[in-house]
Structures are given as C-alpha cells and as structure tokens.
Design a protein that fits this description.
alpha/beta, 20 helices, 14 strands, globular, five-stranded parallel beta sheet, four-stranded antiparallel beta sheet
Length: 522
C-alpha cells in the first residue's frame, strides 16, 4: 500500500495534536460539568436532617441555596456570626399572626466582616427586602490587633496567612480571595486555593459525609448516637445531650414498642409510673407503677408492654431514678461552674417519631441554658466567674473570649481609628446602598458583666459615632441594643444569649426594625 504523497508528515502530526488537544479539553470540560452537577447541584438535593449548630459550612451553603431558590412577599435576612444565631429565634417571629416580613438567617459561626464582604453577591441573590446585620464588638477580629506605643496595630501578614487557611475561605469564597491576594500568600496556600476554586469536590470534602451520616443515624440505627436531643422534652427540662434530671415526666406522643435509655452507673433503680392523662398526673394517680433495677451501665432497651403488663392505655410516663445520681461533670455535660445532678440519658427521638424537616437553623430550649434563669443574680455571677473568667487565659476553649475581654480593657486607653476589618462594614454599607437594599446594623446585646469593661470608654463612643455617620450618609440605620437585655442570666457568655434571652430579645428587635419595613407590606 502506497502513502499518499499529497499529505505531508507535518500536516499528519498537526492533525494528531489537534485531536489530542480537543480530547483533553472535552475531558476537562466533562470533569468540570460533572463536578458542578454532582457536588454543587445534586448533592444539596439530599435531605438535610442535620441539627442546630452542627456542620456549619454545609448548613450555611444549604441555607443559601434554599433562599436563592425561593421568594417571600417580604424577606428580612439576618446576617452575622454566631452572635446573630444566638440572638433571635426566627421560627418564633415567623409564627406571629399577620407578620410584616419573613425572617431568615444568613449566618454561620465566626463570620467576620471580611467573610460577609465576600458573601455580599450571594447574599444579594437570596432576594432580601431588608438586610439586618447583627454586629458585635467580638466580630472585629481582635486576635489580630496588638498594642504598640499606645495604639492598636492590625497584624495584616498574620491575618492574611490564617485567613487563607480558614474554612470559609477554602470552602465558600476561594476564587474571590485569590483574586485579591494571590500575590501575597505562600505557594502552598496558593496551590490549595486554586484547586478548591476549580473543583467543588475539593471544597466540600470536609463536610461531604455529614448529612449522609446523620440520615443513616436517624433512619437505620438505634437513636443512641446524636448531636442534640429531639425527642419529647420532659416537663422538668432536659439537657441538650438528652440527660434528664432525677425525674422525667414525658407525654409520650408516639408510643413505639421500645425505647432506649443510657445509665451511667450499674444497678440503677428506676421507678416507672404511667398516667392516663394530665388530670391523673395532677392528682398523682398512676394507672400502673413498676420499679426496675438495671444491673449494667450503658445503653439498654425498655419495652413498654413488659412494663405496663396489659394495664389501661396510658399517655404520660414518669421515670424517677432512685439510686445515686451521676453529675453533669461526670457525664461530660459541663467542665466548669456549678455542678448538677443528672438522671438518665434518653435516645434521640424518645417518645416521638423521627423528625425529618430541616432543623439546621432551628434552636430549641434545653436545661443547659434554662438553669441560669433559676439562679439568683449572685449565684449566677459566682457561677459565671468560675465558668467563663477564672483562668480564661490558660483555657483553650476560652482563648478567643479572653482576647476579646482584654481588648475591651485596652480600648479604654486608645483612640478609635478605623482599620481594614472595620472598613469592610463600610464597604458593605455602600454595596447595599448602591443595590437599593435597605441595610440596618444592630449592635447586639452584651452581657452587662462584660460590657462594663469598656462601657464608658471614649473609644466606644467614637466607634459608634463613626459608624452612625457612615450609615447616615446613605440613609441607613444604626441601632444600639448593647443594653437591650439587662439581666445577666439571659447570657450564656459575654455575647451569646440563652434560648430564654433570645426569646425576650425577639420582640425588642422586631419592633426596632419595623420602621425599615415598607408600610405596603402590612
């Protein structure tokens, strides 16, 4: 067979190179398409059964996509860090009769002004009619501010290095971050962020299995492994991890054949008392009672039919521990502060069917917080000092709060000067002004115990004055709610409200922002 002399060797080679090039482009295009389809689209169609305050990055992205795909008649989007998450209860506000607006969160833990600045386009795409930024002194990244010659100096190099390695940067805005700082970060951080900019699977791998594991735990396991208790709450209250007090009186909404309980100690004796209705409970007239000694510690199943032995139908069960009680510290519920006795631990959905609705931004009431309201002010202050202040500089879990507390003390000796993290807020103000979206900044409530450190400082006065002046230029609003909640017992720490505190603050905030809601929304 003869070679066609009219086709040159170079032309033949060029044809092969072209085919290889086109094939490579097609393969890369296919990879990018599948990555986007599977990890950015289809993945978030999986049921989200994660619980409050768990898997924060997954839940933030999931919530953002949920808001982007829906629209309300009037939507108020509350933004901010965990301060925002712990300040209000949108579910309660949205249950009011004829609400003027629908409240939604756009928030995650440790959201700094820089984070929010990079989220601004995503926030705009959630269709807000009003943006309320719940802001706090602690949000201003004080770990990067040092005192030098009587003034604060922002450590930009350290901030930039650590920002490049933060989860929000790597997971949510790697491309935007690279656009601004590609030539100011080290080669390792640059390479990592380039990969995450290109592939969603690289971004999301840190939380990829979270919703899957929770779904499996909820539907195919015993309910003995969980993040937060979601069963029926006993009348006496319950800890977030499912531990009861010595007595737990429960209205058993769904009577399954069996339930699981966890016993800290062997040979624990429990009295079971069954009531037909509330009337019998009030008159202390059980239809059946039985005491059982459980020889082993750990999880064990209880079978209702074996306990009631064919008695009348019942609605309420009361479990009372008659043996020596373990303590909250011994079962790792708390480490510092006043200890308390606990009873037994209940399985995840005790006396209740599995709840499959999205609860990732729905907060519930637990004894972890409620117990503070039962203390006198003096008792709370003593407990607070032991739990939050004593030796805080040497306790890893309190390091950041300690840094913020020291910053509050230091601002008494310096004058206010804007810096990059503060300026991000001004840039956000300008952005929403240009987009014609009403923007309100609310200085969130602070624990009066900690607020006293800088309450009367000139720095604080100038900080608020400067912020108000900037907002006034654009017809925007600043609301100072630092002292809106005056009872220390409504605070878990310096700036996070308890469930009861958030319930109190709900109406205060909603009334304060009503003027920013258009009257035609009534």
């Amino acid at each position: 067979m003869e070679t066609d002399s009219r086709v040159s060797i170079n032309q033949s080679r060029l044809g092969i190179k072209t085919k290889v090039f086109l094939t490579t482009i097609a393969l890369l295009g296919g990879v990018f398409f599948l990555d986007t389809l599977i990890f950015s689209k289809l993945y978030f169609l999986f049921p989200n059964e994660t619980e409050w305050d768990s898997s924060p990055w997954y839940n933030f992205i999931y919530k953002t996509k949920e808001l982007q795909s829906s629209k309300d008649k009037h939507r108020t989007v509350v933004v901010g860090s965990s301060v925002a998450l712990y300040s209000i209860l949108p579910d309660e506000l949205n249950r009011r009769e004829e609400p003027q607006t629908k409240y939604s969160f756009f928030s995650h833990v440790a959201m700094a002004p820089t984070d929010l600045y990079y989220y601004k386009e995503d926030l705009l795409s959630t269709n807000p009619n009003l943006v309320v930024y719940l802001h706090n002194f602690a949000d201003l990244q004080w770990e990067y501010m040092v005192m030098e010659n009587g003034s604060f100096v922002f450590q930009k190099e350290i901030w930039l290095k650590q920002l490049a390695d933060r989860y929000p940067t790597k997971t949510i805005y790697p491309t935007l971050f690279l656009k601004d700082y590609w030539n100011q970060i080290d080669r390792k951080s640059f390479s990592k962020l380039v990969t995450k900019s290109l592939f969603y699977v690289s971004r999301f791998r840190i939380f990829f299995w979270d919703p899957v594991v929770v779904f499996i735990d909820n539907h195919f396991r015993s309910g003995r492994k969980y993040h937060l208790y979601q069963g029926v709450s006993p009348k006496e209250g319950i800890w977030s991890k499912g531990w009861t007090k010595d007595t737990a009186t429960i209205e058993c909404i769904d009577q399954k054949e069996s339930e699981s309980i966890f016993l800290q100690n062997a040979n624990t004796k429990i009295d079971f008392r069954f009531f037909e209705n509330e009337k019998d409970l009030r008159s202390n007239a059980p239809i059946h009672s039985q005491s059982i000694v459980f020889p082993k510690s750990g999880w064990t199943d209880i079978h209702w039919s074996q306990l009631t032995s064919g008695s009348k139908p019942w609605k309420i069960v009361q479990l009372q521990v008659q043996s020596e009680l373990p303590t909250a510290k011994s079962v790792n519920l708390i480490r510092y502060g006043n200890d308390e006795r606990v009873g037994i631990r209940l399985s995840h959905f005790f006396c209740k069917s599995i709840q499959t609705e999205n609860r990732s931004y729905s907060r519930a009431s637990y004894w972890d917080d409620t117990r503070f309201t039962k203390m006198s002010l003096n008792e709370f202050k003593e407990e607070y000092f032991e739990r939050m202040i004593r030796d805080a500089g040497n306790r890893k879990e309190l390091w950041r709060l300690h840094v913020v507390r020291e910053a509050k003390k230091n601002v008494n000796h310096v004058k206010f000067e804007p810096w990059s993290e503060y300026n991000r807020i001004i840039q956000l103000s300008e952005y929403f002004y240009q987009k014609k979206i009403p923007f309100v900044i609310v200085l969130s409530p602070e624990n009066p115990i900690e607020f006293a450190y800088y309450k009367d400082s000139q720095w604080r006065k100038d900080w608020i004055s400067n912020l108000k002046t900037e907002l006034d230029k654009r017809g925007q609003t600043l609301i100072d709610h630092t002292l809106a909640v005056s009872d220390e017992r409504y605070f878990f720490d310096p700036h996070h409200l308890t469930y009861e505190g958030a319930s109190v603050y709900n109406s205060i905030l909603s009334k304060a922002i009503e003027p920013a809601i258009p009257s035609n929304q009534n």
